[in-house]
Design brief:
The two termini are 29 Å apart. This protein is of the alpha+beta class. A hairpin with a 6-residue loop joins strand 2 and strand 3. Bound molecules: FE2/S2 (inorganic) cluster (FES) and fe (ii) ion (FE2).
């Protein structure tokens, strides 16, 4: 009994420490914190089993808040782009009143496509099959040979809307009409992000990469810094101290890690002189902070620019990574000269992260793999998998594929 009380007191002290003190504590510790659970192995079949991946698709991908694009991609009323990241293509558009809305690219007559390109400008959407016409906000306004549809109710044939909400200047979609509003859903993270003034940031660049692995193989790599010393030996590991990394686990599978620079006051020389977001805190400016919005959005902000990454399943063992940069005071017609090199350096790091993915996938598919063994530093990955089971609903995950939930006491609700 006495021992338990002491453990709780130690935990409370840790919760009260400020973030820098926590980093010192993490750097110096000789074991995980007293009482921290040991993770049972994550069954490898969760990365390859077709029935499990189908559950993941139906219950998670189709019901999660997923980044679709940036408001700069919709500069004027009538601008639109087509999003096809998770199966059903969705038109994201700016209406005449300037609002951003999203609809399935599915005509309500017989399913013809409203748009066939990736992006464009329109005054409304006309179906390519029999010419039904819709406004930018999805209302059906014209039906060819209307006389042949007696007692037809136009109002009942609007395009089917997709939930669409903004996080600053970033557009997120959710295929679940009942989804909790995005800002409420990310909970305590929303307050932490205010210092970034996301609504003011411009889109600098966006490009994508594909590789042969299940999407979770790559996602895992961006939830920990345990791998820095091996695969980023000549890049990130030179300036980040992974042993002092701290983690915040938030509800709904979201999380953050913060890794200090090896040398206090270090500034990336490739960013000196670039415009800065004026409200970024010293903590964010002087450490590598990385946010994760469940399931597939990763964002490590710096005052001079924010890379954002999304990981998309292109099939059971094919993944696309989309990497974009947002920045303050960016003029697309006259970009800061340092961007070219900065994006190139970032790309080099991404290739380092991608290098083993196909071989890891081979391992996961082979008889030589018994389960993912995670350590304390890798706890965000376990948090992710616990959330996936919650989304699917525990009773639907076959017993041999479940992860045992152990992290609830370590999730911060405020
Ligand atoms: S399918 Fe669109 S008008 Fe017929
Ligand atoms: Fe990495």
């Amino acid at each position: 009994m006495h021992e338990m009380v002491t453990d709780q007191a130690a935990d409370l002290d840790l919760a009260r420490m400020d973030l820098l003190a926590k980093m010192d504590w993490e750097r110096e510790r000789t074991a995980p914190p007293e009482g921290f659970p040991k993770f049972p192995p994550i069954p490898g079949a969760r990365y390859v089993d077709p029935a499990f991946l189908a559950l993941e698709d139906a219950e998670m991908w189709r019901k999660s808040w997923l980044y679709a694009g940036h408001v700069d991609q919709l500069p004027t009323p009538g601008s639109w782009f087509l999003n096809r990241n998770t199966g059903s293509p969705v038109i994201v558009t700016r209406t005449l009143s300037g609002e951003i809305k999203a609809f399935y690219n599915t005509c309500q007559h017989r399913g013809g496509p409203l748009v066939k390109e990736d992006a464009g400008e329109a005054r409304g959407f006309v179906c390519g099959y029999h010419g039904w016409s819709y406004t930018l906000d999805g209302k059906l306004t014209a039906v060819r040979d209307r006389r042949d549809f007696p007692e037809f109710d136009m109002a009942c044939h609007s395009l089917i809307a997709v939930r669409c909400e903004l996080l600053g200047s970033m557009i997120f979609l959710n295929g679940d009409p009942e989804a909790q509003p995005l800002i409420e859903h990310i909970g305590p993270m929303a307050g932490q992000l205010e210092e970034l003034q996301l609504e003011t940031l411009r889109l600098v660049d966006s490009r994508s990469y594909e590789t042969d692995c299940n999407v979770k193989v790559l996602l895992d790599a961006f939830l920990e810094v345990y791998h820095l010393k091996s695969i980023h030996e000549k890049t990130v590991d030179r300036f980040l101290d992974h042993r002092a990394m701290i983690v915040t686990l938030w509800p709904h599978g979201h999380s953050r890690m913060a890794t200090p620079n090896r040398r206090e006051g270090w500034i990336d020389p490739g960013t000196v002189g670039m415009p800065e977001i004026p409200t970024v805190s010293a903590f964010t400016a002087n450490n590598n902070v990385s946010y994760h919005i469940f399931p597939n959005f990763v964002m490590p902000p710096a005052p001079t620019g924010i890379p954002i990454l999304q990981f998309w399943p292109m099939g059971p063992n094919r993944t696309r990574v989309v990497s974009s940069w947002l920045a303050p005071e960016h003029d697309p017609a006259n970009p800061h000269p340092l961007w070219e090199m900065r994006i190139k350096n970032w790309e080099r790091i991404l290739y380092e992260d991608l290098q083993f993915a196909p071989q890891i996938q081979e391992s996961l598919e082979g008889p030589g793999f018994r389960g993912v063994s995670l350590n304390y530093q890798e706890r965000r990955i376990y948090h992710w998998h616990e959330e996936l089971d919650r989304r699917i609903g525990d009773n639907k995950v076959p017993a041999e594929l479940r992860v045992t939930p152990v992290l609830a006491p370590f999730v911060e609700h405020a």
